[in-house]
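Students often ask why we bother encoding 3D structure as a string. The short answer is that it lets us treat folding as translation between two languages. Here is a chain of 1113 residues written in the first language.
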Amino acid sequence: MPAVALSPAAQQMHNILERLQSPDNTSRGIAENEYNQAVEQKGLCLDALSTLAASVGVNEVVRATAAVLLRRSASDMWGGADELTRNNVKTRLLLGIRADGRKDLRKKLCDTIAEIGAPLVDREPSQWPELLPTLFELSRSSIAYERESALYVFSQLADVLDQKVFAPHLATLKSAFQTGLADADPGVQMAGLRATCSQLSLLESYLCNEFVDLVPLMIRPVQQAVAAGNDDDARQAIELLIDVVESEPKFWRKDLAAVCTLMLNIASNNDLSDESSPRQMALEFLVSVAEKLPSQCRKMGTFVRNVFPVSLQMMLSREDDQEWYKQEIDEDTSEYTLFDCGQESLDRIAIALGGKAVLPIAEAIIPSFLNNESSWAHRHAALLAISQIGEGCQKQIEAKLGDVIDLALARFRDPHPRVRWAAINCIGQMCTDFGPRIQTDFHQKIVSHLILVMDDAGNPRVQSHAAAAVINFCDEATPDIIAPYLDALLGKLQALLHSPHRITQEQAVTAIAAVADSAEEQFVKYYDWFMPRLKQVLASAAGNKELRKLRGKVMECISLVGLSVGPAKFGPDAAEVMNMLVRTAATQSEDPEDPQAFYLMQAYARICRCLKGAFIQYLPHVMPGLLQAAQQKPDIQVRDIKEDEEPPEDPADGYETVQLGDKRLSIRTSVLEDKAVACTMLACFIAELGGGFYDYVEPVTELMVPLLKFFYHDECRTAAANALPDLIKCVMESGKDPTGAQVVRMAQYMTIPLIDAIKGEPDVEVLVHMVQALGRIAELVVAPGLSPDLMVPAAQALSTVLLESEARNIEREQLAEQEEWDEEAQEDAEGDEQKEEELLEKAATTTGALLKNHSKSGFVQAFRMPNKLGEGTDAVSTMQMFWVRMHASRQAYERYAALCAFDDLIMYGGAEGVSVISDTLPAMKAYCTDQDADVRQAAAFGVGICAQVGGEAFMSSAGSAVVHDLEKVIRDPNARSEVAVQASDNAVSALLKIMEYQPACLGDNAMSYGRLILEYLPAEADTAEAKLMHATLVRFVQAGDTRILGENAANMPRILFVLLSVLGTELLEESATRPAVDVIKGLESKYPVEVLQGAIALLPDELKQKMQMVLAA
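And here it is in the second language, the structure alphabet:
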């Protein structure tokens, strides 16, 4: 019985909660039913639970249970209680955290206060106006646990509320946090730090600046916890500081040096040698700072010099564990150690700070480690350090790549097996980081060393790792590079297949696959030896759980071999292999960790690419499993981190865990990976099989469209976007939709969700695929296939893409200015800019497809129509979003995309397209001589289109001046260079169009321009424009136009040369072939014999023969 007087409802609830703890299932089940009935009386239940949770005399277990249940269900019951009950609950809870010093119960009450209070104080006006004042009062209490409780509630509220709730109280909050951080009680200090960090993660940057002077106090809990030997508190405190580094890195700028010094002292403190010590967390803080404030870390000068040796020193903690030699897997699945922390930090620091900052320090430290003959751990750490920094220091290491390779290869003969393993690992990683140059320049020494070390039969881990390095090497090795080593390399790998160690067999199989993939058709010579043995392993290992991974790798190997040698060689074995794969799929276990599923799907895709149409017969066996894998629901578990529950599954068990506010979200990543692979394989089947995939179009379409918003995995959304236009193409190629009705239905079904997905896609790389998919659909399904109702949403989606891209670019520029980016920071940002460039190019291409095929459905009007894209934004049109990118201050890729969009608008937009010529043609004229070749190409093309359709607007907007600009491009000495030739082709094409449609612009120089055109032709780079130019030339010659023929047909030799050069090639339209032949044959009757014979005499021999064939035809 409780030691306090309770109301009847509270007494009844007390009895229920007591019985909920019963070990007897029947008794507990009855109590659960009674509790569920009690919850229906919301007011009484709310009152009873709050009474029990806040009453000191109640049994602790009952109190804790009441607090947890109250927090969980308060939001559902609150509206069903009267005002008096709600006020009583609030009063009890605030009194409860004052009445009891026991931390676990107080914490639960604090969590309940935050859960109930957050939505109440978030309203206008506040529904719990006394909450914040009471918390401020408690933060000044003389009782330590009351101060701690107040600060803890502040931290919990900050996790779920908007900053507008706290903004009016910032000064008071800061004072409370400052007092808490300076408190003598460690618990209050930690609560103060938690509250401060939660608030900083919530507030915008300009408000965070108000708290900068608290930094010295914020690091005190770390210092005191370390001094007291309290590792748990030290780790938690540093983790809170890391959260602020992640959310508000600039907050640390003023005191960065002092905080980094503290963390360095902790990370390098060998007295804290336990793996659970705060050393790892301190190094994580330093690495996070490097990633978030790279410019400032580089400017500190001493950052890398201090952190790099600490990371290396941690890597010396690895012991020569004998279990390592016996492992049959190459992955280390043990706990995250000091060694792992040090190794990972080198990679991240190098990537964050770049080679200019990191490599000089590495060169000063690593040699002494590498030459330490008395310590294998030093040599081991040095080699792994080289492999870790390779990606981040790529440009700097490139200059001395040969020397670095020699350092690693020298250790292939090290007396210690683990050092040899590290040397092999270093070479393998460098093959990835520095390919394809390393394969091109250093193949002989690398492959010969790998072949030798594969003889290390006494150390299977070393032997298998050599095979793994072969895989890395082959990734970027061309057939010519790998060819001289095939006999020796495959001979060694063949021997490894007979190893008694599974790890060696698995890596050998994968290496054979990699060699085959690299060798391509040259592997045919070895096919008859390997394929029977691979099939034998596939058959004999079936059903053996321990050999599932080996079977998976054999599937990978067989499929890659088949793809390399082609269907003619692989075809006779394909049926047997597919039958074994299908049987494997049919008998596969339900174990989600069975690796065969992944390998099966990959193998199916490769065999499909090899067999093409011959693979269609296997679809009935393959598709059910593939669809099932693609339809998997994400395995997501949400836990309340405020409750004392078991920790979530370890990430090594296939889960990835993140914290969101007061929730812990665990996602089974292995399921997501399988789903992503399945979706990618389906996209591959659709693209490869075309019409042969028709029977599965409907279910796959229904699967893929919702995946456009599957935000758990980027590859699922990418595969869905890629698949949609190919599904339409599949129906078109099948011949089973003669009226086109199915294509129209499909296009309508998928385009609306695709447009919606484009507007909300957060990842730029995925967005590129989505925008491209919209463009491909617009290209495939011509008007009126796409409904006019889709035109405005499509234009809005493109405007959203352009607007958000602009915002990201501006944000990047502002960040560069605020953080004073150095050269390395600017280089790091180039990757983001390249993504934006690709996105803008796809947006322009998609715009062109919509203008070309859907102008009559209203896209031109939609393109020009201003739309509000969000609250607080002005109405803007897609055309305006492109127009601003035409300005001379913009990057070349922006101007190019804008020019392409306006080229298409003018070409396909009818009268509305022509109406923009007066505004756009001056820019096109200016950009004809731009330094960027792509910009010149788009501008010259646009000039030609304007000449063709512009009428009088062309003369008034550009006139003869543009002709001089085109001439300058054509006469440039580098006009035919690989970079410039596309632009030059389009300049010639534009000049031809001016000659045809705007002859007045040529003035008295028409004949000299005709000669200039002929001197340039034949055009070969831009095939589409070349066809048009050569057809135009034929028309001019047919008409006897003297501007082309010249006086007295003086240009006849060159005309003959051009026409004969393109006749019978892809550079002349079919429709122009007959007229071209007629022109050539008609020369005999039109011109004197001596003129014609003189022209023929100047032709090269092959064209003379062609001339004779034409005349004789």
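Translate back mentally: Residues 643-652 have pLDDT under 50 and may be disordered. Keep this in mind for the problem set.
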